[in-house]
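Lecture notes, part 5. Sequence design as translation. It can be helpful to think of inverse folding as translation between two languages: the language of shapes and the language of residues. The source text, in structure tokens, appears below.
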């Protein structure tokens, strides 16, 4: 049976009504928002939208409280955190915000989401830096050895997932960032699949940029992107878009960006969303981040052990928790993952996305998933194998 998790998962599940309809194994795409979080999000949205400027001070106070909370959760200073719409926004802020020279090169991993590949390859297509790729592995030594083969005096930046969205592999990002910093190369980490799975301290990781969102593993509202910029690299970073709120003063002869990551924010936005993010962080604070990580790790390990014990099943994720995550990617011999994912959803009310690159299914063992959910999935797959 699961280790002592530290929170009552059945009480948690009662606050996630979609679980009465579906075996929901896909927070890697969209998290599901618990009722207490949703209640505060909606109450804030109603308050701000109904009261307009009358709520302005409250709006800003709520947003800054959320910023401080996010900063604590990531080990950053609040001035290093910008709110964006999603994780992809942060990647685009980097592609558009740095000044590129003729001949520049960037290195990305071979398991990046289009959130990373599209902005970099599109920039390359427009005459920007040449993109190279290294292979995802959990072990630091081979990754650094491959980077050493790829690096040139023109390498400006390494962009990589913290956790691969395909295999759930946790990359050796602290080692990569240290290696890059020693060579004057910038680093951008995509933490969309990492944030709220295990502790993250961006200062300890040593990255220059970290982008993530609140809507996957944290199970907060959609539209809550988070972008971290290391204080020391802020002056190197221009803004792609700008407007009211992003400049120090109204001085059209000498516009100066605000000296914090708020320079990436401008114009009117749905500030209430960020209070929804704050509410999601509060919810995880209440449950306990360590307990959540234990839950994720136990269920990830359980599923992997079951997959490894079945002939004809293949595991595409590393086994040790420190090298992996609660994204578990599996395939079954002779089965087309796309068809399988479709059948699971339509015939068995089980939500798992296919991973085309591996002809596999990706299962998220999120904080509300129980062993029985995984056993139900495995029983369906077992039946399909013998049919
Ligand atoms: C690794 C990774 N990066 C980025 C994204 C995109 O996140 P967003 O929709 O917040 O831009 C995803 C979404 O699945 C992802 O898995």
């Amino acid at each position: 049976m699961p280790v002592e998790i530290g929170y009552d998962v059945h009480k948690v599940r009662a606050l996630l009504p979609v679980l009465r309809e579906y075996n929901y194994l896909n927070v890697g795409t969209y998290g599901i928002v618990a009722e207490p979080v949703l209640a505060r999000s909606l109450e804030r949205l109603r308050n701000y939208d109904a009261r307009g400027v009358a709520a302005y001070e409250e709006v800003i106070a709520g947003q800054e409280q959320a910023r401080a909370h996010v900063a604590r959760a990531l080990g950053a200073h609040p001035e290093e955190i910008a709110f964006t719409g999603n994780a992809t926004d942060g990647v685009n802020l980097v592609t558009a915000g740095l000044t590129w020279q003729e001949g520049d090169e960037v290195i990305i991993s071979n398991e990046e989401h289009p959130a990373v590949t599209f902005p970099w390859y599109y920039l390359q297509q427009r005459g920007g830096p040449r993109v190279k790729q290294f292979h995802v592995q959990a072990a630091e030594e081979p990754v650094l050895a491959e980077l050493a083969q790829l690096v040139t005096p023109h390498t400006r930046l390494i962009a990589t997932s913290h956790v691969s969205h395909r295999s759930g592999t946790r990359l050796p990002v602290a080692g990569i960032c240290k290696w890059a910093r020693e060579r004057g190369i910038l680093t951008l980490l995509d933490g969309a699949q990492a944030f709220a799975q295990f502790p993250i301290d961006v200062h300890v990781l040593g990255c220059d940029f970290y982008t993530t969102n609140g809507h996957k593993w944290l199970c907060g509202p959609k539209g809550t992107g988070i972008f971290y910029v290391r204080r020391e690299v802020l002056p190197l970073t221009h803004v792609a878009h700008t407007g009211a709120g992003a400049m120090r003063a109204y001085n059209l002869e000498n516009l100066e960006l605000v000296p914090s990551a708020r320079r990436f924010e401008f114009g009117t936005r749905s500030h209430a969303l960020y209070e929804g993010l704050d509410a999601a962080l509060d919810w995880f604070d209440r449950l306990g981040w360590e307990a959540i990580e234990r839950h994720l790790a136990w269920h990830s390990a359980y599923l992997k052990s079951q997959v490894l014990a079945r002939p004809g099943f293949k595991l595409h994720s590393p086994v040790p928790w420190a090298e992996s995550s609660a994204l578990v990617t599996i395939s079954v011999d002779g089965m087309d993952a796309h068809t399988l994912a479709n059948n699971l959803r339509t015939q068995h009310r089980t939500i798992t996305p296919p991973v085309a690159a591996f002809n596999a299914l990706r299962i998220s063992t999120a904080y509300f998933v129980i062993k029985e959910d995984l056993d139900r999935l495995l029983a369906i797959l077992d039946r399909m194998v013998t049919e």
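The translated text above is only one of many valid answers, since several sequences can fold into similar shapes. The first helix runs from residue 9 to 14.
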